[in-house]
Amino acid sequence: MKDLRRYLALKYIQYLVLSSSNAVSTLLGLLGSAYTMILLQSAKVSSKPTAVLISSLAQADILVFLSLVSDVISGSFGASPTASALARILLTANAHVSCVLLSCVAFEAYLITFLPAESRLLRTVRNARLISRAIWTLVAAECALFLADDHLRASGASAPSRGPLGLLFQLCSVAAALLRSLSYTLGILLRIVNVYVYYKIFFSMSPR
Questions:
Q1: DSSP-H helix ranges across the chain
Q2: Burial annotation 116-130 (CB, 10 A radius, 16+ → b, else e)
Q3: What is the DSSP letter of 15?
Q4: Low-confidence ranges of the chain (pLDDT < 50)
């Protein structure tokens, strides 16, 4: 559907083209996600694997809404480091889930264009749901690690530095730092892969 294609274009611009989010793109993204979730209530649309991925993409913007609510509450009752960290983690989760889901949609478009018959058994609603759940689970684990690392940094000297707990805290800090560096690299790679996929699709469909 044209509306879904426009929504995907908006999301690609928001997460894979713009270097950072801004108020205009965030507001348009929230409005687009709300409209898309209503649109996907149609049984005919929601029975397709691409629609499952797009639905999960739209639901990811609930995290943005929760982040804004957290900022409002924090501003009303005084700034809180915990609330600020939670709002930042929610935005991180939204960005990571959205980027990976957009790449999954691009990969499915590639399969539909170049391997329609060979990939038919892979392109099912069940597999799309499993992929969406796996992405959400991995990003939730990532954000839980970030929250734990932020808590340890805030506790400072009160955190144990020796024994099993000290070793666990050190491993948590190292893992969080590694994930933060990897997430930037993976973000760049996802941009390159998405551009390549749609470049191939565009020129394969262009009249020769």
A1: 2-12, 23-39, 43-46, 49-59, 61-76, 81-114, 125-155, 163-205
A2: eeeeeeebeeeebee
A3: I
A4: 157, 208
d(CA 196, CA 21): 23
Name the pTM for this structure: 0.88
Into how many domains does the chain fold?
A: 1
Do 125 and 48 contact (CB within 8 A), yes or no?
Answer: yes
Q: pLDDT tens-digit profile of 97-116?
A: 999 999 999 999 999 999 99
Q: Say what the pLDDT of residue 8 is.
A: 93
Q: By the 8 A CB rule, do 65 and 87 touch?
A: no
- Domain range for 120: 1-205
Q: Are 96 and 142 in contact (CB under 8 A)?
A: yes
CA atoms of 51 and 122, how far apart (whole Å) = 15
